[in-house]
């Protein structure tokens, strides 16, 4: 913590030294999502953009083509070279980026892990901005599906990539809930499929699930690409009455399936709020108005008071939002 | 009976084509195209972003591609000999995962490195056995082993990454010789050595002969199968070295390490003007092409150009270079 402060002081000192010309430079923030073409991250980007509009920071976003573990590294190096103040990133790997993060931070760049943390490697980033209290994601998804299938039958999980840290944390929590809570004793997890957050692969994987497990009652897909693909497959196969799909999806992607009854309900948080909060936090830390240490609180317009938690983890909202026929019309992202 | 002088056969001379002027022989070659593209790319990249023209940054960024470039040097020789190896990226992953597994099981790092290098040789020998002994087409064999090696890596390492290597092993891309990162230096030295090997040794020239006409090479007494076996061994060994470099750079290994790398390697070799059907090409071309790739990828990334535009440029470039290579070879001989 002391090192962090010293570093911050050094950076601030350096910027003072650099003279008046730089003093007025706006904070520059870049956001590197997992990959391009994922509407979920577009919402986070929108949050950043709106945040920077009010705060007066400079915002850009760049992304690799694939969500493969090392694909973000060249982008990160390029951003350090461009001299940005803050790199916000949704890491594709919990540890492959460590070396590059360390280098970036030694040059005074602030690293924020947005939307997922890097379990076990928290020392390599400055803070993590998580969408929601993730400990509730797994159990909450299991309950959502359980309620729809009468807490009985075979279920499967359709995940993203095998190494996605957020996915694996949630899957572990789902397994834990299924095992330990007697309420779910009759629900049996038969397999976990990986669609790599690729619509085509997710579709193929879901088709394989349907073919291999004729008694399948439900699919949990805690990823936006996966849940939309799974819903599409179930709709095409006309099995919406037999197989329930739940997961984490965006309202715009899932609207059609909710309206035609393929999907009863799904959950999410607001990625937009994450971007908004990250922008405020980044500018605050960079300008020295927010201290990056556990227990600090700060105000974000529209989100209220936010607290920095243990290991500099910030949770944007407490509970998941459930979307169904009743409320989906209220959301547009 | 020498009285009957056999009449000198009337020489029916076909009008021989004039030898090409020397400047043409030297300048009209695929490497020249690569070199020109390299210069153009550097100028464009410098104009695209004020942050590009920084040698330290370019060298740092090159470490992300240089592992593939090192393997591409050996792949160049394999392709010149008329074969192809598509499995090196998977070999990198499997040998790196074996290294990680050995280390995790308690082996000291030098032993783990040895395990990895031996596994590289073994994988190379496995490929070579099918290609030179069973005489199966190398493209089919190595597509098969590409999947096999990657699959074995996944079985071995599972979905988790293996890491926490000791500090001295991690971060070879940040150890400098002067201002040049160690992996880049390895690439440069390997280029010089392999360039000399291919250009001036008898074995090197024999490899060109094998690629030009294998039948003729066999009749000329060249030990074709033995040489090819050696090339695939070299490919395996080099892949495991590249795998170790990647493991050191990332500080962890995973089964999907270097995934898709085989295409980058083939891209580098093709950009460098090596003829896909064998017999022609050079290490110099591959060396220049590796830098061309580094300059283009780094230049566009630092200019914040969207990735889909980057991929389009790479694709177009590959097509241009293949057309140029073919046109030049068609013109110069054949």
Automatic annotation (TrEMBL), chain A:
Chief location bin: periplasm
Residues making up the signal peptide according to the UniProt record: 1-23
Stored SUPFAM superfamilies: Periplasmic binding protein-like I (SSF53822)
Occurrences of domain Periplasmic binding protein (ranges): 29-288
Family annotation (Pfam families): Peripla_BP_4
Keyword Signal: yes
Full protein name: Rhamnose transport system substrate-binding protein
Lineage, opening ranks: Bacteria, Pseudomonadati, Pseudomonadota, Alphaproteobacteria, Hyphomicrobiales
From TrEMBL, chain B:
Function: Part of the ABC transporter complex LsrABCD involved in autoinducer 2 (AI-2) import. Probably responsible for the translocation of the substrate across the membrane.
Primary subcellular site in the record, as a coarse category: membrane
Assembly mode: The complex is composed of two ATP-binding proteins (LsrA), two transmembrane proteins (LsrC and LsrD) and a solute-binding protein (LsrB).
Lineage: Bacteria, Pseudomonadati, Pseudomonadota, Alphaproteobacteria, Hyphomicrobiales
Keyword Nucleotide-binding in annotation: no
Transmembrane region(s): 32-52, 64-82, 111-131, 138-157, 177-203, 229-251, 257-277, 284-307, 313-330
Membrane topology: Multi-pass membrane protein
Thylakoid among keywords: no
CDD domains from the UniProt entry: TM_PBP1_transp_AraH_like
Keywords for the protein's UniProt record, in alphabetical order: Cell inner membrane, Cell membrane, Membrane, Transmembrane, Transmembrane helix, Transport
InterPro entries found in the cross-reference section: ABC_transp_permease
Subcellular location: Cell membrane
Protein's name in the database: Autoinducer 2 import system permease protein LsrD
Signal sequence coordinates: none
Superkingdom of the organism of origin: Bacteria
Coiled-coil stretches noted in the UniProt entry, renumbered to this chain: none
């Amino acid at each position: 913590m002391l090192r962090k402060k010293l570093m911050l002081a050094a950076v601030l000192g350096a910027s003072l030294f650099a003279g008046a010309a730089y003093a007025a430079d706006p904070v520059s923030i870049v956001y590197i999502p997992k990959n391009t073409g994922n509407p979920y991250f577009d919402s986070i980007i929108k949050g950043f953009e709106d945040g920077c509009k009010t705060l007066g920071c400079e915002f850009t976003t760049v992304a690799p083509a694939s969500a493969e573990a090392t694909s973000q590294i060249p982008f990160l190096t390029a951003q350090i070279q461009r001299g940005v103040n803050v790199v916000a990133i949704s890491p594709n790997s919990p540890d492959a980026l460590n070396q590059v993060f360390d280098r970036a931070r030694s040059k005074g760049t602030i690293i924020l892990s947005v939307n997922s943390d890097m379990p076990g490697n928290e020392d390599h980033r400055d803070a993590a901005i998580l969408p929601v209290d993730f400990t509730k994601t797994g159990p909450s998804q299991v309950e959502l599906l359980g309620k729809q299938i009468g807490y009985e039958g075979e279920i499967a999980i359709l995940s993203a990539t095998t190494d996605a840290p957020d996915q694996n944390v949630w899957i572990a929590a789902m397994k834990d809930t299924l095992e330990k809570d007697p309420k779910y004793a009759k629900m049996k997890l038969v397999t976990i499929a990986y669609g790599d957050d690729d619509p085509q692969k997710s579709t193929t994987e879901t088709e394989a699930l349907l073919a291999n497990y004729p008694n399948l009652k439900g699919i949990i897909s805690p990823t936006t690409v996966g849940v939309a693909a799974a819903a599409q497959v179930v709709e095409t196969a006309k099995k919406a009455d037999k197989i329930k799909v739940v997961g984490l999806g965006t309202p715009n992607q899932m609207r059609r399936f909710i309206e035609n009854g393929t999907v009863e309900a799904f959950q999410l948080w607001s990625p937009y709020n994450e971007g908004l909060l990250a922008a405020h936090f980044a500018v605050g830390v960079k300008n020295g108005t927010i201290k990056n240490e556990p227990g600090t609180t700060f105000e974000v317009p529209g989100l209220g008071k936010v607290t920095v938690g243990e290991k500099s983890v910030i949770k944007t909202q407490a509970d998941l939002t459930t979307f169904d026929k009743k409320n989906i019309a209220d959301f547009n992202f | 009976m020498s009285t009957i002088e056999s009449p000198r056969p009337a020489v029916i001379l076909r009008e021989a084509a004039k030898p090409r002027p020397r400047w043409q022989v030297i300048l009209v070659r695929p490497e020249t195209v690569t070199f020109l593209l390299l210069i153009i790319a550097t100028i464009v990249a410098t104009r695209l972003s004020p942050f590009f023209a920084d040698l330290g940054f370019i060298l740092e960024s090159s470490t992300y591609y240089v592992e593939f470039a090192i393997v591409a040097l050996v792949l160049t020789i394999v392709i010149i000999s008329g074969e192809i190896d598509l499995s090196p990226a998977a070999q990198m992953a499997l040998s790196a995962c074996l290294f990680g597994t050995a280390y995790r099981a308690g082996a000291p790092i030098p032993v783990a490195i040895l395990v990895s290098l031996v596994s590289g040789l073994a994988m190379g020998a496995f490929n070579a056995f099918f290609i030179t002994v069973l005489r199966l087409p190398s493209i089919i064999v190595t597509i098969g082993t590409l999947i096999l090696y990657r699959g074995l890596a996944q079985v071995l390492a599972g979905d988790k990454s293996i890491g926490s290597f000791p500090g001295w092993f991690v971060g070879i891309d940040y150890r400098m010789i002067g201002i040049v990162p160690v992996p880049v230096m390895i690439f440069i030295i390997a280029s010089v050595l392999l360039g000399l090997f291919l250009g001036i040794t008898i074995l090197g020239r024999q490899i060109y002969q094998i690629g030009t006409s294998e039948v003729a090479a066999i009749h000329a007494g060249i030990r074709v199968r033995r040489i090819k076996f050696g090339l695939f061994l070299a490919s395996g060994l080099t892949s495991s070295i590249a795998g170790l470099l990647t493991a050191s750079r990332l500080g962890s290994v995973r089964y999907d390490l270097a995934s898709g790398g085989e295409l980058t390697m083939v891209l580098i070799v093709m950009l460098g003007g090596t003829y896909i059907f064998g017999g022609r090409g050079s290490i110099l071309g591959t060396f220049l092409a590796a830098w061309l790739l580094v300059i283009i990828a780094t230049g566009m990334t630092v200019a914040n150009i969207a990735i889909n535009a980057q991929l389009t440029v790479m694709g177009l470039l590959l097509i241009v270079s293949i057309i140029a290579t073919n046109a030049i070879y068609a013109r110069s001989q054949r």
